[in-house]
Amino acid sequence: MAAEIVNQKDGLEPDVIDPAFALHRGGKMAVQATVPVRDADDLSLAYTPGVAKVCSAIAEQPELVDDYTWKSQVVAVVTDGSAVLGLGDIGPKASLPVMEGKAILFKQFGGVEAVPLALDTQDADEIVDTVVRLAPSFGGVNLEDIAAPRCFEIEARLKEKLDIPVFHDDQHGTAIVTLAALRNAAKLSGRALGQLRAVISGAGAAGVAIAKILIEAGIGDVAVCDRKGVVSGDREDLTEVKRELAGFTNKAGLTGSLENALAGADVFIGVSGGTVPEEAVAAMAEDAFVFAMANPNPEVHPDVARKYASVVATGRSDYPNQINNVLAFPGIFAGALQVRATDITEGMKLAAAEALAAVVADELSPERVIPSPFDERVAPAVTSAVAAAARAEGVARR
């Protein structure tokens, strides 16, 4: 559709036809100075000769870079354009509107400065090397829209090499918000996480991360399904990531199809983009939860899910209980940067989920198990919880 708009022959500019193009013309970001340069005195302080004093001080005490530059307040939003939204592998140039959008969400919702960096390579070694070389300019790295399984390797290697937070939002942001919503859904139904059996459709970046955080949080059991069915130890076609996944999930030893796994399950979590038959949803346990998060087309349409589930969540903004990563990543980085953390640990992720759930803990209803992205309580709550967890886990430097 976008290509048709751009290539039309009637002579009208695209932004006359579509307001999305009008909004994006010229980009969505700009650099703004935080100090004035009004006269020669200002210039001598902001640039030469005054800047030399600051440079010399940092050369002698490198840690001063966090106090006298923007480094400690800015995140690099890094992508290779290989797994963008619902668009797939569209490359670095076409990914830039999304990366700009991510950057302005950092600022709008968390007060965090962010710079989009779209890299013209999909080679893991080259991505890691590039980010490591750029890292002195940034206080954190948010990996975005990098395809699995490459994203797992890149994140792990960067976390090992860098002393600043590295966070793949497609994995962990989704997982944190999902856990927060699930905590509240369980509370609403009078159950503990340990009493629930969940089935995840999708064994990519988000599915793997959700499984890990649910296990960390104490869920009763969770099985993950890919296109060929339940990820289980008896399968011989598993990748290294899926073999690891099979090792810590599916205590019940389920095999076969997604539909088989859903029989009697308490929770469905969809991050696959597939379609789940209505009869499979009907076979779930009483008072089940359906979190069908594929966007724009959920794996289970909300109208169908409501026939059988007590709580329904989607990835869409036009239905209640939107599982939206913007509820997590701005506050997570704000908290990590606040204490100049060297890492984002599992404990910090769990703390973020607990804080997010607590925002609406006294306002729970089937249509409100997670806050709105525009709830002004969200970012401060997540920021505070993450900062406290960083100090408790020994990764804070202030």
From TrEMBL:
Q: What InterPro entries is this protein classified in?
A: Aminoacid_DH-like_N_sf, Malate_Decarboxylase, Malic_N_dom, Malic_N_dom_sf, Malic_NAD-bd, Malic_OxRdtase, NAD(P)-bd_dom_sf
| Signal peptide positions on this chain | none
> Cofactor binding mode, per the note?
Divalent metal cations. Prefers magnesium or manganese.
Residues bound to (S)-malate: 295, 324
Domain Malic enzyme N-terminal spans what residues? Answer: 26-159
The annotated active site, in chain numbering, is: 47, 102
Mind listing the GO molecular function terms for this protein? malic enzyme activity; metal ion binding; NAD binding; oxidoreductase activity, acting on the CH-OH group of donors, NAD or NADP as acceptor
Cofactor names:
Mg(2+); Mn(2+)
Q: What is this protein called?
A: NADP-dependent malic enzyme
